[in-house]
Amino acid sequence: MFYPLVAGAILVGGALGSDPASPPPPVDNSFNVSTCPGYSLHSLSETDSGLTARLNLAGPACNAFGVDVVDLTIEVNYETETRLHVHIFDTADSQFTIPETVIPRPNASSSNTASKSDLVFNYDPSPFAFWITRRSAPYNTPLFDTRLSSLPATPIAPVMAGDPLTALDGFPLVFENQYLQLASALPLGANVYGLGEVIASSGIRRDVGTDGGVGTIQTNWARDIQDPINQNMYGIHPIYMEHRFNSTTDTSQSHGVFLFNANGADILLLTPPNANVSLVEYRLLGGTLDLYFFSGPTPLAVMEQYSEVIGTPTWQPLWGFGFHLCRWGYTSVNETREVVAKMRAADIPLEVMWNDIDLYHAFRDFTTDPIHFPADEMRDFIHELRQNNQHFIPIVDAAIGKATNNTDFYDPYLKGAELDVFIKNPDGTEYIGQVWPGYTVFPDWFAPNTLHWWTEALKNWSALGVEFSGIWLDMNEASSFCDYSCGTGIDISNTSMQFLLPGDPGNPITDYPEGYNSTISGPSGNVTVNGTLTYGATASPLSTLSKRGIGAGNQTGVDLNTPPYTIYNGFTGLSNHTLATNATHAGGYRELDTHNLFGLMEAMTTHKALKTVLQGQRPFIISRSAFASAGKWAGHWLGDNYSLWEYMYYSIQGILQHQMFQIPFVGTDTCGFQGNTDEELCNRWMQLAAFTPFYRNHNQRGAMSQEPFVWDSVANASRTAIAVRYAMLPYWYSLFANASMQGTPPVRALFWEFPDEPELFAVDRQFLIGRDILVTPVLTPNVSSVDGIFPGRGKTVWRDWYTHEVLNATSGANTTLAAPLGHINVHVRDGAAILLHQTPAYTVEETRQGDFSLLVTQSVDGHAFGTAFIDDGVSDPPGPSTIVTIQASMDTVNISSSGAFHIVQKLAEMTILGVTQRPAAVLVGGQVKNFTYAASQQKLVASGLSVDLNLGTTIEWK
Question: Where do the domains of the chain lie, and which CATH numbers do they carry?
Answer without folding.
Answer: 37-310 (2.60.40.1760), 734-957 (2.60.40.1180)
